[in-house]
Specification:
Elements: E1 9-10, E2 17-20, E3 25-34, E4 37-44, H1 46-56, H2 62-76, E5 82-85, H3 96-108, E6 117-119, H4 134-141, E7 142-144, E8 154-157, H5 165-176, E9 189-192, E10 197-202, H6 211-222, E11 226-229, H7 235-245, E12 251-256, E13 269-272, H8 280-294, E14 297-302, H9 307-318, E15 323-327, E16 332-336, H10 342-346, H11 351-360, H12 367-371
Helix pairs in contact: 2-3, 4-5, 8-9
Length: 375
Amino acid sequence: MARVAINPQRIDGPWIEGFVLDRHVVSSRPLGYQGEHMQFETTRSPMGKLVYQLKYRNGPVDDLVETAVAFAAEHWAGNIDCVVASPPSLHRARQPVMLIADGVAKGIGVPMLASAVEKTTATQQMKNVPIDEREPLLAEAIQPSTDSVQNRRILLVDDLWETGSTKTRCRGAQQNGGLRDQGTRDDANEITMSLSIIFVAGSRHISRLPAEVKKRLDTMIEKRFQILVGDANGADKALQQYLSDKEYPNVIVHCMERHCRNNIGHWPTREVAAPKGVRGFDFYSIKDRAMADAAEYGLMLWDGKSKGTINNVVNLSRNRKPVVVYIAPTKQFLTVKVLNDLCEVLAQGDTESVERLVSELHLPNLREVVSSREP
């Protein structure tokens, strides 16, 4: 076994200390379209690569476990009484999180409590559930089980960090299920492996952020999400300015190769190359497609006319990535989980603009939105 290099980042929550060991994806370079989908060359962190191979390629767990054990021993030596695994969403014959938790427990010489919490109701993967729907869903699904953790100092392990909803619910199940005395010291610690990634963008005609959008951004900052943003004027620049004013570091600016128009916060950039001869809308949409492919969720600010913003919604929803759309003319948020949900969004837009973008983006299934609108 061999340890791999990591870049730990602290995460806040209802525990004494929490860390992610590294980002999952470091970079993603477009290779060109294969059918309707852009293909990418993805570079993962060493830890991210191990997690990916374990979850999707039946890869080994040994190096991942040794790295996690070394980190736990360095930070909490002698202060862990047991290891608890966050209950997985999908049934697998070989559960990655259970393998990791079991290996970590053996490595630091404490028991793994496989039945401290359990998922009593099946759920889809949390990365496919809108953020605001997670807590009530998990409150019902995750319950205390038969292994008592009373008066024990817990290391809670997961293989993916999203918003912390699952881990927070595990903590709640331990407390509210009567498994801890009211006065017991809270020593729940956590090791996780990735950060939630959100693609935030909007129309060029939106140059000021509404208060309700700023509130959403504040939540992302509080949860330490990784935010992907473009380099255009308008909404991109306004988003950059707000994140810079907040001195938020976890931002990656996407721009076209050798040409970054705005990077107010001097964040890391990801340059995207376009095939030779591509110009105009198709040129910049390659950058947007790279962000949509790299992200897990989206927040889009739409002026009721912009084709580019709707194209981002389409790219996200076609890959079953939830996206919240703020519609500036009506000052409301609508959530798009699948492409057909876009109908309600388009119904709030400018009639002539919607008709044009439905045609130009080749969305024949949504033409009924245009035809049903009053002239």
